Amino acid sequence: MAGYTGLFAAAARGDATQITALTAKGERPDSRDTHGRTPLHVAAFGGHHEAMRALGAAGANPNALEEDRYDIVTIAAVANDVATLQVALTLGASARNVTSRYDGTALIAAAHLGHAEVVRTLIRAGAPLDHVNNLGWTALIESIVLGDGGRRQGNAPRGRRPRRAQRS
Fold this sequence. Notes:
mainly alpha, Serine Threonine Protein Phosphatase 5, Tetratricopeptide repeat, 0% strand
């Protein structure tokens, strides 16, 4: 995330001490970059947990969506980063948020990627099991249609792999 300064640079580096100092001087924890990301999005993307906690303590909105409509829960879910997901949930981020241009959820993204522990964590956090995205798919359907049929998503018969569907 080259070119960042101030709070964004501190978030990208994971510098919780600098985040605390900058927010104490008046930098806004919910400021936005040119892609609509907040410093909390940047810290979550980097897996910088102490920086995320410092931003949360400074009042950052844990449910903010960036311009592609991703939140910190979805960022962690797609990255298969359970530790960052747990920090996000502790900060008050919701597993129920509707995110992405597909009007999906973090659960749908994690299921189709085969991120089993993330899926379990999201379910425990109250992610909606039957949410239908704008393609008409639930997490279960996405895991079947977009999954690779590997061990993470079930036991496809040996020698047969389902064709990978493409989103239009």
